[in-house]
Design goal:
The protein has about 300 residues and is of the alpha/beta class. It has helices at about 5-15, 70-75, 95-105, 150-155, 165-185, 190-195, 195-215, 220-235, 245-250, 260-270, 275-290; strands at about 25, 30-40, 40-50, 60-65, 80-90, 110-115, 120-125, 125-130, 135-140, 160. Bound molecules: NADP nicotinamide-adenine-dinucleotide phosphate (NAP). NADP nicotinamide-adenine-dinucleotide phosphate binds near residues 5, 77 and 115.
């Protein structure tokens, strides 16, 4: 498993119950490490072998749970270990990472997933499970699950093989595009996007554009669902602070390049105007650009 953060530790800990899992870290100073997952007032502890990316040792199955902008570099760092038949599962937010990997490693089998499970890091390799959720995994064009998926379905709660994973990824992208940047810009919880009329109007404009782009890109089912799905998520997560809001507040890099910027690349390819999404992308980039101190 590559990307031992909040989501990585959550899934590594679950998968350990049905087979071996190795944590791939940038550097390893010991042979094993304890992963702690807190939930429902208790804590589970599992000891997992660790391996530095640069070491040797063949990898036949790779779960990638880094942030979107780290996927390419992280996988490149273990490229020498990937077997020719290696199965790689990308389980993070955003789109475009699979395209980058396909360009770098055209021979590898790539799978994509999306999860609504929630977790956050308390300390290195110590996470708190913040909410149960559904996980969908698939490979574009593949109807039946590969053999390794049976371990996932036995281990991970509410985990399904999705023969139309692209639709699920697009719907998730649409929801992220409509909610994350706007909450980050206004420093508000998700529910305010419905409660404040001026923000609700902006959400509607963003959704109109996103639906048009999804339709033009061939995802007409997603186009029909965008407005309703975004409204449902805003209502269902009204008290949450989006991950992008948390990243901006903490001065961390956001995943905007794999969310709104990806959407806008598709919009340009399909000749669909998207001024509201483009303006939002510009404002998030301005908000997170490194500041230059004129005093030196
Ligand atoms: N957290 C959630 O509830 C949640 C829910 C759904 C989806 N997601 C998505 O899941 C993805 C991961 O999110 P997260 O919250 O788990 O992020 P996170 O806590 O920051 O974890 C990412 C991990 O990847 C590691 N990493 C980055 N580059 C690496 C490299 N080259 N080699 C080895 N490890 C590397 C990071 O290490 P360092 O910290 O040392 O850089 C960090 O431990 C994101 O796309 C996020 O949007 C998260």
């Amino acid at each position: 498993m590559l990307g031992a953060g909040a989501i990585g530790c959550l899934f590594a800990s679950a998968l350990r119950s049905t087979g071996p899992v190795t944590l791939l870290l940038r550097e390893a100073t010991a042979a094993a490490a304890e992963v702690v997952v807190e939930r429902d007032g208790g804590a589970s502890r599992v000891s997992l072998p660790i391996s530095a990316a640069a070491q040797d040792g063949a990898i036949s199955h790779l779960l990638v749970t880094t942030k979107a902008y780290d996927v390419r570099r992280a996988v490149s760092a273990v490229a020498h270990r990937l077997t020719p038949a290696c199965q790689i599962l990308l389980l993070g937010n955003g789109m475009g990472m699979a395209d980058e990997l396909r360009a770098d490693f055209p021979h590898l089998a790539l799978y994509c997933g999306t999860t609504t499970a929630g977790a956050y890091r308390i300390a290195p390799l110590h996470v708190r499970h913040a909410g149960r959720g559904a996980t969908r995994i698939g490979q574009p064009g593949r109807r039946l699950a590969p053999p390794w998926f049976s371990r996932w379905s036995r281990t991970v709660a509410d985990c399904t093989w999705d023969a139309q994973i692209e639709q699920a990824l697009w719907l998730k992208l649409a929801i992220n595009c409509a909610i994350n940047p706007l909450t980050a810009l206004h420093g508000c919880r998700n529910g305010e996007l419905a409660a404040r009329p001026e923000l609700a109007l902006q959400v509607a404009r963003l959704c109109d554009e996103i639906a048009a782009i999804a339709g033009a890109a061939g995802y007409s089912g997603v186009a029909r669902q965008v407005h309703g799905a975004v409204a449902d998520v805003i209502a269902g997560t009204a008290h949450n602070r989006s991950s992008m809001l948390q990243d901006v507040a903490a001065g961390r890099r956001t995943e905007i390049d794999y969310i709104s910027a990806y959407l806008l690349r598709v919009a340009a390819r399909c000749n669909v105007p998207a001024p509201a999404n483009a303006a939002l992308l510009r404002r998030i980039r301005a908000l997170t650009a490194p500041r230059i101190d004129p005093e030196g």
